[in-house]
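Subject: Interface between my chains keeps coming out wrong

I've been trying for a while to get a sensible model of this assembly. When I model each chain on its own everything looks fine, but I need the whole thing in one frame so I can look at the contacts. Pasting all components below, labels as-is. Any help appreciated, I'm running out of ideas.
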Amino acid sequence: MSLGGPELDATAWKLIVLQPEIGLAEANELKITLLASLEEPAVELDASRVRQIGTAGVQLLVATALELQKRSRPLHISIASESFCEALSLCGVERLLPKPALVTFD
Amino acid sequence: MTRSLSHIQQELLAGFFEEAFEGIAKLESGLLSLHEPGQEGLVHDIFRAAHSMKGGAGSFGFSAVTEMAHVMETVLDAVRSGTLSPSSELSALLLEGVDALRVMLSGLRDDPDAPSPDHAELLRRLNEAAPNSPDGASTGSTGGATAVSLFHIHLEPPAEPLSTGTEPLRLLRELAGLGEMQVTADASRLPPLSELDPARVYFGWDIQLRTSAVADQIRELLAWIECPAEMRLETAAAAVGAGPAAVATAKSPLEQRAENAAELDSIRVGVDKIDLLMNMVGELVITQSMLGELDGEGPIDKHRFERLREGLSLLARNTRSLQESVMRLRSMPIGVVFNRFPRLVHDLGRKLGKAVELKISGQATELDKTVLERLGDPLVHLVRNSLDHGVESPEARLAAGKPERATIELKAYHRGGDIWLEVVDDGRGIDREKVLARAREAGLVSPDETPSDDVINELLFAPGFSTATTVTDVSGRGVGMDVVRRNVRSLGGEIILESTPGQGTRTLLRLPLTLAIVDGQLIRLGQHSYVIPLLSIVESVQVEPARVGRCQGGSEIYRLRDELIPIVDLGPVLGLPASERSLVDRLMVIVESEGERIGLLVDELLAQQQVVVKSLETNYGRVEELAGATILGDGGVAFILDSAGIGRSIKSRMPDRVARVA
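Reply #2:
Try treating it as a single job with all components included. I did that and got this:
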């Protein structure tokens, strides 16, 4: 699956690699990273390492996705761990975030 | 020794009994059809009823009740898990248990310290019926329960549970472990990323959980997360036909009972409604400060006057919408009242040997709380009447070519500015001949008179009138319909009877949306101001003497277009001296109620305004011609006229029916 849209080359994508654990403590840092990404032409998330993510993290991701959508900027989840996908599914937010292109089984 | 109970304990106890008797009703009706085919899901419901009764009784130390409920629960658990198959014998045994529970609970309700009768023999038989299932029932979770129910859960955590260590995801995971779960997050409260506080939960969740777990288990899980106020647990009448939706909050049983007890004394109000109110109050404050600015020094010039007018009209608009919102706060769903009917119909049906199906619709229709509270008794009367007089015996129904099982419908809906309630049965209808014969016997109708159907229906509302040949303990004492009508009228509503012989009867109740505030027309009569509710006014006319006629009895009528309308001089009716003004100088307000029009003579029409109704009954006593009193803008007091009451009062003074003269 191609990561870039037709009008964007690969370098335009801002890659954010999510930490293995995203609890309340890590959420503040993630917020800063995500806020900065809003200015990028396109954002790609690598969620392959995520072993644990809480409601705080999920909310931040959904808020980012909604914001980027409002700005008509693409967001992709290139690769995601099973734990990450499970958390999104449990949270009922799958329809609010892009489907991961690749899911790894951890 | 009598326990001395605090106010709260008494309330809790009252709540417990209310719930326990509901449980008894559920157990009873469930057990009756438990062994019928297609009722496999029912056992789940009954089991839950026994289980919560056990728990509730335990927390008040009613050990005899706990013991009985526990044994019944054990038997039911065996049925639930399939080790025991339901039969009419088993139902009969369990029904004995239900009867015992009822006796014990009634005794305890009168005196919480009363010793409970000995049921050792029954307990033994119940114990024998239950195969050994060690403690299977007490946890309510074991056993190969096959019935699956669908729960709808709406979860709205408070804003800051994350910092207290509560993680909604963990709860969601636990719930998912119970069965098949579908979750939808409501992200509408999620702020822009820059304003998002990671420690707060903005999501709300709608969860559908298909599970064989019981409500208590889910409730326990939900109690984990400390947000009782906004969590609702709904048992959907789903796959297993689990019966009417039961709503429970994820509070401890004690809190829940307290709430049930206080159900009609307090109102649960959604946050959105409060927010709306806050907004409106905000608007009011803005308008007030805008008007305040105009209060400065200097003359009132054109510009300032315009601003003043603008501000006043804004104020009027805001006040009105504020009032509407507050009125909405007072409304409650009529389901609160309807809920008692399945049991009533079931019991009475059995007592009278009639098979009846009760259909209820429009439970969510909202009514003013005051109206709601006073509606229960009239409705019970009507449903009883339908069951006793309307619905025929199964044999008679079959002979008449009708289905053996009769139907009684209870409906509620909005139409126009009113709430309508209907009690409909498909019974034999009103036997007009019988009513007429009885009325002639009672001297209400002269032998040579053949009144219209409407007049005959009206006879049913006469005090003491009954067509029942035998007085049963259900109805037939003739104290029904006139009381019903009086109750409905005191709520500002009316009652209409429609009946087709052989096909059934429909009773319609029309009730006002609210009692608290009415749109009124202010009128002047001599030195006094009165209010006529705008809803009852048809039109107002200048009296033309040529159109005034006089009847034999001395009463005056007015010919308005093709209609003859009785003229009522309000002065004498209200105990004021008769007006000295001639008819020409006066105005006539034509009001309609209960299908009849009368013309009220007044001296002057003043402003139209909304008035807050203050009850006369509470502070003084009922006055037929008045619906209440109100305080006017200038601090004066005005009575609110009850046009229906005036109509009745006039009729009672005039033996000659105006209708006949016309």
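Reply #3:
Confirming on my end. Helices of chain A lie at 24-37, 55-70, 82-91.
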